[in-house]
TrEMBL record:
This is DUF4402 domain-containing protein. It comes from Methylocystis heyeri. Keywords: Signal. Residues 1-23 form the signal peptide.
Length: 166
């Protein structure tokens, strides 16, 4: 044991044995009596499990500086916030430009616990690609998309389509 640890142990022991917690009350000089503060608790929330799939299809057209064979990275998320819980699922991957466009199809399976029937499904989809044109430094293109459909029935597949051009 180091000298520092021994001094810390002795200090803590001295503090522990020098104060009797029961002796500190409203009669003790310097003591401040604390009032109890009621804490309002929310009632327990009943949850329902929603299972399903978000099926995203996207077509991203390439600009003149994006040659075929260029990789495009994507990330997708499905999020439900209902005032009680936040549930989220993420998926990412990559595709390749071919014929002047990249076609991306991705499924996000989910099992969300929902505490309110007014919850909304928030879907985000982002893509990015970096190209190196001649006589120039690297250029990164990116697009972001979003959709907020009503929460579908449990077991449903929610199709969402996005399109854009770099």
């Amino acid at each position: 044991m180091t000298t520092r640890n021994i001094f810390t142990l002795l200090f803590c022991a001295a503090m522990l044995f020098s104060v009797d917690a029961l002796a500190i009350d409203a009669q003790t000089p310097g003591a401040i009596p604390l009032e109890s503060v009621p804490v309002r608790l929310k009632p327990a929330t009943t949850t329902t499990q929603y299972n399903g799939t978000v099926a995203i299809s996207a077509v991203i057209a390439a600009n003149a500086q994006t040659p075929d064979g260029t990789t495009i990275n994507y990330n997708a998320s499905a999020v439900v916030m209902d005032g009680f819980f936040t549930s989220e699922r993420f998926v990412g991957g990559s595709a390749t430009f071919s014929g002047g466009a990249a076609t991306i199809s991705v499924n996000i399976p989910y099992a969300f616990f929902i505490g309110s029937s007014s919850a909304t499904l928030n879907i985000s989809f982002g893509v990015s690609s970096t190209v190196n044109p001649p006589n120039s430094g690297p250029i990164t293109y990116s697009l972001a998309f979003g959709s907020s459909p009503p929460l579908p029935a449990s077991g449903a597949t929610t199709p969402v389509s996005f399109s854009g051009t770099f």
